[in-house]
Amino acid sequence: MIHIARFPVQALLWVWEYILEGFERLSYKIQSQSVTPQYKRLGQCQGTGNCCEGIGIKLPKPVIKNTVTKEIAKKWYGFRFNFEFIKDEEEHLIYNCRYLKENRRCQIYRFRPKLCRDHPKQLAFGKSHLAKGCGYHYESTRKNRIRSLVNEAKEADKSFKV
User: Fold this and answer.
1) Angle CA(121)–CA(76)–CA(91) in degrees, nearest 5?
2) Where are the domains of the chain?
3) pLDDT digit string (tens) for 48-68?
4) How far, in Å, CA of 20 to CA of 38, rounded?
5) Closest by alpha carbon to 94, among 109, 111, 73, 108?
6) How far is CA 23 from CA 26, 60, 91, 101, 122, in A?
7) pTM, 2 dp
8) CA distance 124 to 34
9) To 10 degrees, what angle do helices 67-81 and 2-34 make?
10) Which of 132, 53, 135, 136 is nearest to 99 (CA)?
11) Of 11, 27, 49, 125, which residue is most buried, by most CB within 10 angstroms?
12) How many Cβ atoms are within 10 Å of 57's Cβ, its own excluded?
């Protein structure tokens, strides 16, 4: 019975996530005009499926401290994303995705949740955890900024004549 109810609930949640994604994009656009991220995410997915195992969901400290809310969160992520709970570590709940097939491909790739579509998330401060062999890497934007300033100084030095 619960498997029959899962699809309509997940479909409604997918629509809700799509609406929220619009707001998130708007806030990111506003934020990106005022804050330059510390790191820029580069590369692309290699399709290894490593990010689908050992998924860490960080929860706020008050939720972690309260056993009832922690259990609700465990059940929620299990139901919402069809995750299999593995263990909890400090502030994280660790899951594996049940949609990962034996060939390391996602069974619902075209309809995967926003959590999966956005991975690894571009953060304004710091960087997301990357699974081994995922194909993504981070480069410091400060390093790039310093490099461009040095190049500008060299160009200005070349054009300067006494």
Assistant:
1) 55
2) 1-30, 36-159
3) 888 888 888 888 888 888 889
4) 25
5) 73
6) 5, 22, 27, 32, 16
7) 0.62
8) 10
9) 100
10) 53
11) 49
12) 18
Q: Residue 56, SS3?
A: strand
Cα angle 73, 41, 30; round to 5 = 75
* Residues 97/101/102/104 CA torsion (nearest 10 deg): -80
- Rounded to whole angstroms, the Cα distance separating 54 from 48 reads 13
Residue linked to tokens 């290699």:
46
Residue with the two structure tokens 């299990």? 78
State the DSSP code for 159: H
Whole-number Å distance between alpha carbons of 78 and 98:
10
